[in-house]
Structures are given as structure tokens and as C-alpha cells.
Design a protein that fits this description.
With 147 residues, this protein is of the alpha/beta class. Helices cover 27% and strands 22% of the residues.
Length: 147
Amino acid sequence: MGASGWDYFTPYQQDVSAALAAAHERAFSEGDYFWLYDGRWGSPERPRPSTIEELWEDEGVRHSFTHSVLDIFRVLGPGEEPEVCSARPLTAEEITRVLGSSWPTRADFERISEDGLIEERGYACYTVLYDEQRHPSEIVFWGVTGD
């Protein structure tokens, strides 16, 4: 199948790990992830799991991943070395260079192609997005995951 690019917006909160958890809950509850057992991929059909924990108990999911924010397990801080299945923050220089502003909005993010910021499959980035009054309004996570 190959990897998939994705992005998720979540309301701003100071705790980025909590924002990631909120993005996980939304993606899971909306079924916004790859489900190997939907009848299209050669596996027998099965209902989706009722919890995120049950999702990751499945060997097929652990092998193919979810092609979504659910594949990201850890938020890194500034300067931490990128790890597979983690999200790193953009640097101030990257924010200005890529998004064109020190106070990027959702519209700024939606105008760019985030592909150039993800070096390889299994990684993700995040940044804070601002409203027109330069108040933090959202955190966006994006990445390329899945197999």
C-alpha cells in the first residue's frame, strides 16, 4: 500500500502531549485511520475496535500502522533528535521559511506542502497556529506513516 501523508488540527493548549492525545481521540472516534479489515485489502472484514488500546493489540495494525496521527506516540521538545513514531516541533527558522510568518495561521499552513518537512516515513512535525490577533488557536500535527 505504501505510506500516507496526513495532518490533524487540534485546539491550542500549552501541553502539546495533551493536544496529541486529543488528536488521537478525535481520529479514533471519527474512524479517520486505515483499517486493514474493511474488506478492501484481502483480509477478512471485522468491526473496528472500541478503544485505541484494542486497535494496537492487533498484529496487522502493528505491522501496517494506521496511516494517521494515531501512529505518533511521542511529542519531542525543541532540539530533541527525531525518532520514529514521534512528532518534532518546527524550529523558528522553519516556521518563518516554510509558513512565511512568525505567527502562522491555518490559512498559511494550508497554502504550503508539508511533504518537504518530513524527511522520511514514520516521522511527524507539529507547530502552533495563530488567529488574526496573534493568539495561539490551534496545534497542527502532520506526518507520513504507514506501510
